[in-house]
Amino acid sequence: MDDVSKEETPGEEGMPVQLRPYSIRARFTLVTALLSVIVFTAIGIGLDFAIRTRIQDGIYADSQRLATTWIDWEPYSAPQPVTTTRVDLLQFTDSHSRVLAASKAAGDVPMSRLLPPEEDRIQHGTACTPARCVVFTVVRVPPLETTVLWSGEPHFVYAGMVQPPILSGHRLEWLTGLGITLMSAFAAWVAWWVVGRTLRPVAEIRARTAEITVGDLSLRLPQPPGRDEIAQLARTTNRTLARLEEAVNQQRQFASVVSHELRSPVSGLYTRLEEAVLYPDEVDLRETVAAALSTTKRMHAIINDILVLARLRTVVPAPHVPIDLGALVAEEAAGQAGGAPVRAYATDDLMVLGNRIQLIGVMNNLLVNACRHAETRVEVTAVRAGGHAVVNVVDDGAGIAPKDRERVFEPFVRLDDGRRRDPGGSGLGLAICRGIVSAHHGTLGIEDSSQGARFVLRLPLLETDRAPMHT
């Protein structure tokens, strides 16, 4: 069974529920879990440290206050009643750590043998025995009292309490670890749920994409609401599918028209050659060969035009170079030898970016068509208008009806007057011209004229193309 058949069945949210290493949802959840563990661990360590510090600082503050208060008491009497319920361990010792007085809870065993020096009279610490750990503060009796009462022998007051369970064991660490685990698991679940909700349209898009085939490009992807990346992707893909459907339809129509246009000359050629073979004595071979050559020449012209049109649609265009369109129009107008006379007017310095050979072909085709249909003259103008170079080719012939002004640019479309004036034409000339102009980011169309046909070519001027580079 292949990999496709192994995919899981979508769950309630339309997404696979099994964790897969190559799933975006799984990867995002895994990354979120790892980052959550790292972040919450750092927070937990800091929180653990802060809690321990706060509890210890509170004990140290209470024990220090109690110890310094007890220094003023009579050291040979019993300790005064303790005013706090937390700090209940009080001891008064000499320099040999002998307990001279103590609270009932403290006992006779010294809490610690820590003896602060004169320059640091108050110190804090934790002393542990097998039975318990005590958090305490030890205060050295001031030198004046020591000298008066004990002939200079240092004495010390200890105040403390049994270390709270949250500090004595690993309870705080376990609680912190449990919190880290729960928070990380919650963050991972949120990531899994959010990504699943976000990618739900992707499953629908994938399912619909699997249904789209070359035979039916009319299907479109479901577009989720909103303007997020997935919605924009769906809309862009639908626009691409629409262009693809249009291109495929054009290709099919073009192939149908090509086959129709080639079928007639091929059938005629086949018939004449078959007659020559079957009836050699009744058919003039010289005439048959001449007719076959004429038909072959027309087919050759049609095929060449088809190849040119196909290259315009598929081949990457050659780099464009600056061209003086006015000079090019004047040269082509002056080179027209047959047909009606051509009068040209061109503005200087009409610089455009383009392929010179292709633009010459466009102008030559427009001028030849105009001369073929003109009665007495053809007028050509090349001027500047609104950032474009505009070329008008006008003849004084019968003109083209408004309903046919777009049809004549379709492949193999030839009007009756065109067939009469040029029986051997392929009907691809204007289609090729429009393709070339479109590749130059321009337009080619037929506009209203007082008499005859008026072809209008517009190409962006060179300075217009370069202007955005300076903004």
Automatic annotation (TrEMBL):
GO CC annotation terms, alphabetical: plasma membrane
The organism of origin for this protein: Planotetraspora silvatica
Record's catalysed reaction(s): ATP + protein L-histidine = ADP + protein N-phospho-L-histidine
Residue intervals of the HAMP domain: 196-249
Residue ranges crossing the lipid bilayer per the database entry: 28-51, 174-195
Tree of life domain: Bacteria
Keywords linked to the UniProt accession: Kinase, Membrane, Phosphoprotein, Transferase, Transmembrane, Transmembrane helix, Two-component regulatory system
InterPro entries linked: HAMP_dom, HATPase_C_sf, HATPase_dom, His_kinase_dom, HisK_dim/P_dom, HisK_dim/P_sf, Sig_transdc_His_kin-like_C, TCS_sensor_his_kinase
Protein name: histidine kinase
Top-level enzyme category: transferase
Coiled coil regions in record: none
Keyword Ribosomal protein in record: no
GO molecular function, one term: phosphorelay sensor kinase activity
Cell compartment(s), UniProt: Cell membrane
Entry EC number(s): 2.7.13.3
Keyword Kinase: yes
Segments forming domain Histidine kinase: 257-463
Pfam families the UniProt entry points to: HAMP, HATPase_c, HisKA
PROSITE patterns documented for this protein: HAMP, HIS_KIN
